[in-house]
Sequence to fold (518 residues):
Amino acid sequence: MVLPPELIAHAARLGAVRLRDLMAADRDRADALLISHAGIEFDCSKQRLDGASITALVAHLEDAGFGARREALLTGAIVNESEHRPALHMAYRHGATLEGADVTHLVDRTQAETRAFAQQVRTGQFKPAGKAVARIINIGIGGSDLGPRLVADALADHAEAGPDLRFVASLDPSELARTVAGADPETLLFVIASKSFSTQETLMTAQAARDWMAGQVGLEQAGRHFAAASAARDKAITFGINPDHIFDFPDWVGGRYSVWSAVGLSLEIGLGPDVFAALRDGAQSMDKHFATAPLARNLPVMKALVDFWNRAVLGYPSRCVAAYSARLGLLPGYLQQLEMESLGKSVTADGLPSGMPGGALVWGGCGTEVQHSFFQWLHQGSDATPVDFIGIGRHFASSDPRERVLAANMAAQGAALLDGVQLPPGNDPAGAAQKSMPGGRVSSILLLDDLTPATLGALLALHEHKVFVESVLYGINPFDQWGVELGKVLTKGILDGELSGYDASTRAMLARTGFVPE
Ligand SMILES: O=P(O)(O)OC[C@H]1O[C@H](O)[C@H](O)[C@@H](O)[C@@H]1O
Fold:
């Protein structure tokens, strides 16, 4: 892929204009660059973009074959070429037009099964050791952790009364110890979430959990405290999970898109099936919008075009996500996997260099806390970086002053990045220079009417689709992740003590630390 000369020309034209002047030149800009759907408003009026450049971006997307590619995605064609699979996670929210009844049947069956099991656990009908479950511990990593963990935290205030929900992803033994601390072992349910059921960290932690349970309730009883969500039912059975408590899903649900599938089991139990269903409904609404809205008024498409513009045309290497809601504190981490595992590539499906940079580095944190840490760098550092502000619209008119102040801070940060300040030198030129801020720094706002299961679902689906659109612009497959494999292979070599092929630095470190192979 190459950038069309029109986009480069627009970048040069817009780069020569002060951002404030660009805004002042068009009185309708704030409305024109605002797109809303499913309780989410996307405001990109503080971006270095105008109508002509957006028209050129849309044309470029069409030229890149977006129409056919989106059709392929939504109808279950093979869009994950290197793994020969469709990517039909939308089926779990009934947001894709599926070919054949099989897929719908499969989705409906699993959803009925997980809902029924969740109800049994929540009502105390399911008693692994004669007592109702009081705590669920999700053991998983990557997509089997980040999505469920984010949703659990984001919707904690919406949870219907039910068991407590915890997560373990780390191999560090202290994590598992922490999640079981204070619990009555007889009231625990471990949900092993692993698409492949072969991820080393997850299996080792699951084994440690089972050993711990065996020590508490006896070997025979321990197995009753385990359920699984996996695309590899046979492996879960081999591990020893009761087949009745294994909830499967097909391999065409990618790990980082799997929260909607049986991987959401711990959420369905912990938050309640209706909350989980509302999350899916919100995502489905975004799916429909993505499938049908005109490109220039299509929220995921426009978000993708803005992010592509900043990354590939203007050349910003990263994007900061600042969530002005404590409940969305895990969003940057979730987006890191979704975006960087999907777009961190530079080879096309045909195996050729894409000629494009691939997706941006994503990083961020929670406002206002981050204003007291890295925002200094955003305001006065030498690397201007686009920021996504994620806020809650209700806060602006809240009766709680803390929420109003939170919202006002978010608005102020976007304005400060845009405006900057130039202090007159006066009789302290050095001080004035140090206190001045360049401004002209771009940002977007994603404003949720309120944080609800439906708006959260829509927000996650928005980002999933945005990533897909970007993948078309970068000419890459967003659904595989071969880059994570080599590390797994080399870990095995180290554990096996087969070090002859390793570099001198690694071998020296292992020797120095007295590492003992298995
Ligand atoms: O769900 P699992 O099969 O255990 O996989 C967990 C994670 O590990 C892999 O290495 C991938 O990089 C992730 O995309 C995946 O989500």
